[in-house]
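[09:14] KT: can someone run the structure on this one? pasting the chain below
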Amino acid sequence: MKYYSTNKKVSGVSLEDAVVKGLAEDKGLYMPDSIKKLPKEFFDTIENLSFQEIAYTVADAFFGEDVEAEALKKIVYDTLNFDVPLVHVNENIYSLELYHGPTLAFKDVGGRFMSRLLGYFIQKHKTEKQVNVLVATSGDTGSAVANGFLGVKGIHVYVLYPKGLVSPIQECQFTSLGQNITALEVDGTFDDCQALVKSAFMDKELNAKLKLTSANSINVARFLPQSFYYFYAYAQMKSMHPKLSKEELEMVFCVPSGNFGNITAGLFAMKMGLPVKRFIAANNRNDIFLQYLQTAEYKPRPSISTIANAMDVGDPSNFARVLDLYKHSHKEIASEISGVSYTDEQISETLKTCFSETGYLLDPHGAVGYRALKEMLHETENGIFLETAHPAKFLETVEKIIGEKVEIPQKLQEFMKGEKKSLPLSKNFSAFKNYLLTI
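[09:31] RB: done, structure tokens below
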């Protein structure tokens, strides 16, 4: 499979080059030349398959031409050594719990897959030059990528995160690892961190000296694997409703959206034949996409800090992929994706009410998704919101809202024992460039 850039000036790129480069030379994002439709038989019997079996079928459609079958199978099975259960919350609303991986966040899937795929390419060519992975994070990406790449030979990861704008537990998960992981505490916002990473890829001097790649969802190896769990959600939904046909299931996915990699992966799943009726992109006050739906104009702006901090993105990178997927047709995008935006007060109210009425504890991001379904789901539809991280990762916020103690999973407790090691960095690109030139 070859890849092209959303800016259309680069094409015919191999999977390996697309993964290693991360961002195309024309500053666009890589897209596969084609999206393969999966056969009807796959969907007819999907409920009988394991998560790993489903994911391998999907992965083969994207990566099978470029990675040997056994190697790809090992990458998929190693990545998905945890479950992603579909849990009924109330009425016709379900939670797809994506927080059962090592760092308790949905990005464990993409982060672990990418680390293994990149490791495969390095091993295959016995590359001597170290690969430097640059990743900007608003919280969960940093921990998922850092832990996915921890100890992988030939790779060093640099995590850029906004000072004071990630939760203490999230910060522990990538600042305490050491080894081949370096945390850079940027005096700015997530958008500033993302701008530094993108600028590094465009800098000729840096790229001449260093082998750079990104592990943000701008990288095809990070965002495409996130399509796996949409198929698995459908398999579980079929098992729960064996008497309903795929048309009668009327499956609606509501995706808490920040950088839009997660919902883009869901759109790819739909293009591959997954029977999704429609998508809802749920935002906090950073509602750039909602504004686009309403006005047909995309106007990025500085991000606003909220209690759903992983969605504090004012210029979502993957919007370029959404546009490309729909050939820049606002009408087509709006016909399959609706949008909504909530304030911190509304998010808090939803989290508290859901817990008191159902006993189900949301995190602030899941609360955005749950509320959107409560308000926008039709009676005949089955709504699935993506619960993207464990509530304990936002401990102070969640405990304050519900007025109760939240149990911290053992995995998180282990991270909290580590010592914070990070380097301060200004949001000025010249400072970041000088630092990279000295490594």
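[09:33] KT: thanks! The mean pLDDT is 94.
[09:34] RB: yep, looked fine to me
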